[in-house]
From TrEMBL, chain A:
It comes from Levilinea saccharolytica. Its EC number is 1.3.5.1. InterPro entries: 2Fe-2S_ferredoxin-like_sf, 2Fe-2S_ferredoxin-type, 4Fe4S_Fe-S-bd, 4Fe4S_Fe_S_CS, Beta-grasp_dom_sf, Helical_ferredxn, SDH/FRD_Iron-Sulfur, Succ_DH/fum_Rdtase_Fe-S. Residues 140-172 form the 4Fe-4S ferredoxin-type domain. Belongs to the succinate dehydrogenase/fumarate reductase iron-sulfur protein family. GO terms for molecular function: 2 iron, 2 sulfur cluster binding; 3 iron, 4 sulfur cluster binding; 4 iron, 4 sulfur cluster binding; electron transfer activity; metal ion binding; succinate dehydrogenase (quinone) activity. GO terms for biological process: respiratory electron transport chain; tricarboxylic acid cycle. Pathway: Carbohydrate metabolism; tricarboxylic acid cycle. Binds 1 [3Fe-4S] cluster. Binds 1 [2Fe-2S] cluster. It is an enzyme of class 1 (oxidoreductase). Pfam families: Fer2_3, Fer4_8. The lineage of its organism: Bacteria, Bacillati, Chloroflexota, Anaerolineae, Anaerolineales. This is Fumarate reductase iron-sulfur subunit. It catalyses: a menaquinone + succinate = a menaquinol + fumarate.
Length: 248, 128
């Protein structure tokens, strides 16, 4: 069977060297089951080699290719074109929001990575600690001690979509808070609660839950932030009565 | 650079395009909070009429019974219901309770707010 071909227009945000942003259009023929990143790469390969964008693994592990596609934060390597436009439709591609643009679709994520590092998130965790307790009940007695990579791929989509992050550059953001929660679950380290418990940490979140909606990796930052609040409040109350360790 | 966070981007709080129901709740809570704050100021202004004597107060009360002002008061009731009920949802969610059902909770609470607003409208405008 001959593969379906769609003609689509990519309207790509271009900005470099402090110049004002503008959109440049490229018309492509694509297979709608290809991914948005494939289309962006084709623009770079066959139309404009000056286009700047980030990508690496092409299978949602590296988190490098996050972009805003038709208004919604997407990991473009796993977003089929069919899901976000139609034949003769347009894909409006923009850089992630709430990060300084370095060039075109590339944003400066250094502050984001610093916050992730401050959250002490270890990229590997025992399986029962890496899973979301709400989705995967921990087996009573795991047969083997197994570890796996934690879910967060540090793509930054949650920060891009967050309304609180739009107005505060000091907010540590959903990913770092979720990382602190993940690490707290794994280690019970009290200093993580102290790190998160301030106005630009846990309490800056205003419950729009968009971070969880766009997360491509089932991290569920909103749940983790709220659960971390619960731990913080519980710990603060317990400390009033002299307890120093969190309840297991 | 234009893409960086800035307090001047507060308008994005009120932009529901491409967003989920959680953002609608977020926006409604902010709009109703502003409305209730404005109402509080107007309410204090109205009470200040008391010190100007009975005539001034009676004149204001006569104005308050006009349909336009009544409609404004109905908006205050709606704002109070929306903000209060949504606030209870956010309060519970904020400590991890009911978070997995936050969308459904919001819809149910807004139906209750709508029903309450209709109830007050029926009685305020004498439709009962």
């Amino acid at each position: 069977m001959k593969p379906t071909t769609w003609t689509i227009t990519l309207s790509i945000s271009r900005q470099s060297g402090g110049a004002p942003r503008h959109f440049q259009e490229f018309t492509l023929e694509v297979n709608p089951d290809e991914y948005v990143l494939d289309a962006v790469e084709r623009v770079w390969a066959f139309h404009d080699r000056s286009l700047n964008y980030r990508h690496a693994c092409h299978h949602s592990t590296c988190g490098a290719c996050g972009m805003v596609v038709n208004g919604v934060e997407k990991l473009t390597c796993i977003t089929p074109i069919r899901e976000v436009t139609r034949d003769r439709g347009t894909l409006r591609i923009e850089p992630l929001r709430n990060f300084p643009v370095q060039s075109d679709l590339v944003v400066d994520m250094s502050a984001f990575y610093q916050n992730m590092e401050a959250s002490k998130l270890n990229s590997v965790s025992p399986v029962e600690k890496a899973d979301l307790p709400i989705d995967h009940p921990t087996p009573a007695a795991p047969a083997v001690d197994a570890e796996r990579l934690v879910d967060c791929i540090e793509c930054g989509l949650c920060v891009s979509v967050c309304p609180a992050a739009a107005t505060s550059d000091s907010y540590v953001g959903p990913a770092a808070l979720a990382g602190a929660h993940q690490q707290f679950q794994a280690t019970g380290e009290i200093s993580l609660l102290d790190w998160a418990d301030h106005q630009d940490g846990l309490w800056r979140c205003h419950s729009a839950y968009e971070c969880t909606a766009v997360c491509p990796s089932n991290v569920n930052p909103a749940w983790r932030i709220m659960n971390l609040r619960r731990h913080v409040v519980s710990q603060r109350i317990r400390s009033l009565f002299g307890a120093k360790e969190p309840r297991p | 650079m234009m893409n960086q966070p800035s307090p001047r981007k507060f308008w994005r709080w009120f932009d529901p395009r491409y967003r989920q129901i959680g953002t609608w709740a977020f926006i409604l809570n902010r709009i109703t909070a502003i409305g209730l704050t404005v109402y509080l100021v107007l309410h204090l202004y109205m009470l200040s009429k008391l010190v100007q004597g009975p005539e001034a107060y009676d004149a204001f009360i006569a104005l308050a019974k006009t349909p336009v002002i009544l409609f404004g008061e109905l908006l205050v009731i709606a704002a109070g219901l929306i903000h209060g009920l949504n606030g209870i949802r956010v309060g519970f969610n904020s400590f991890g309770f009911g978070l997995q059902r936050q969308r459904e909770t919001f819809i149910v609470l807004m139906i209750i707010a709508l029903a309450g607003t209709v109830y007050f409208a029926v009685h305020m405008f004498g439709w009962a």
